[in-house]
Design goal:
Layout lengths: L1 E6 L4 H11 L4 E4 L4 H5 L8 E5 L3 H5 L6 E4 L5 H4 L10 E2 L6 H17 L2 H9 L16 E4 L3 H10 L6 E5 L8 E5 L4 H5 L4 E4 L13 H4 L6 E5 L8 H9 L3 E6 L19 E3 L9 H16 L10 H4 L1
Parallel strand pairs: 1-2, 1-3, 3-4, 4-5, 6-7, 6-9, 7-8, 9-10, 10-11, 11-12
Bound molecules: oxalic acid (OXD).
Oxalic acid binds next to loops.
Length: about 325
């Protein structure tokens, strides 16, 4: 069996070693760290391609592989590419250690707002001993925009803290402890109750730019936005305008339209914006390779697998 590995991330050697250990009988062809090869045609008899942000030229030549494994949860780099060969199944990484990381990040961001740690940091800088009145959890609603694998895990991690929780997704979800809102008709009502909005949506044709001036203005005055999904879900200028007007209280941003975030971008030094460099949930190599290897073994045995992307819905 022939595998093609091509990743724009810098840890190709780690992936290759893990793949060789997990699938010793497979031949793994790599192009991640060889830019010239990435431009050349891949070997003809590739069975499965394992890709992260591959060059278009490479993608175009993969029309006869049995499946493409996306080396991460977000498939927007493939889905958004005109070079994506039609009809080839795309399989995303499901959780593989990402849900735990995402939950840690979001719980931290929510508690930081609820317990007003930024105000205490400011008070400390000013040498002020300034206890704030205790907030009630009732009325401090947390909304999760995108209740997929990661969104569900984040909601479960928040549940024990006792905040009112709401989730928005394309179709209604039945998850204990979370009020479910579904579809565009219920988006505004969902946003209107979120003191903290946590964005975990995939980037698709429909969600690009979804958080613009109109939708962000549905949030309560002073609300906080956490984006751990994709930068292009947000219209940056609209977010900045609402922050400057004090309409929104702040934003915790891990993802950006251009990464690394350009040095001149106003997010870097905005007093109401906290940024991290796309680290909320990194793809863990060993866990992901174990998952991909198990799926390849099942596919080779003619068995069904989970995590196959639906192009109609997800592209
Ligand atoms: C992913 C990511 O999609 O790391 O997995 O952003």
């Amino acid at each position: 069996m022939n595998l093609l590995f091509c990743s724009a991330a810098g840890n190709g050697a780690e992936w290759l070693a893990a793949l060789t250990r997990a699938l010793p009988a497979a031949r793994v062809h790599a192009c991640s760290h060889l830019p010239d090869q990435a431009k050349a045609s891949p070997p003809q008899d590739i069975d499965y391609a394992l890709l992260w942000k591959p060059p278009a030229r490479l993608l175009r030549d993969l029309g006869s592989v049995k499946a493409i494994f996306n080396l991460g949860a977000g498939i927007d780099a493939l889905a958004g590419s005109e070079a994506m060969p039609p009809g080839v199944p795309v399989v995303r990484v499901e959780d593989a250690g990402m849900a735990e990381q995402m939950s840690e990040y979001v719980v931290h961001a929510v508690l930081r707002q609820y317990r007003e740690f930024d105000s205490y940091a400011e008070a400390q800088r000013a040498g002020l001993w300034r206890p704030l009145a205790r907030r009630q959890k009732r009325g401090f609603d947390i909304g999760i925009l995108g209740i997929g694998v990661l969104g569900t895990a984040v909601a479960a991690a928040l549940l024990p803290f006792g905040f009112p929780l709401a989730g928005w997704s394309r179709t209604r979800k039945d998850i204990a402890g979370i009020d479910s809102y579904a579809g565009s008709a219920e988006l505004d009502a969902f946003l209107a109750r979120c003191q903290v909005l946590v964005c975990l949506l995939p980037l698709t044709r429909e969600t690009r730019g979804l958080l613009d001036r109109r939708t962000l203005s549905q949030l309560p005055v002073g609300a906080h936005l956490v984006n751990v999904a994709r930068g292009a879900l947000i219209v940056d200028d609209d977010l900045l305008a609402l922050l400057d007007q004090g309409r929104l209280g702040g934003a915790t941003l891990d993802v950006f339209q251009d990464e690394p975030l350009p040095a001149a971008h106003p997010f870097w030094h905005h007093p109401r914006v906290s940024i991290t460099p796309h680290v909320s949930a990194v793809t863990l190599v060993e866990e992901s390779v174990a998952q991909i290897a198990a799926k390849i073994t099942r596919l080779e045995a003619g068995l069904p697998i989970t995590g196959i992307v639906d192009p109609e819905r997800d592209f």
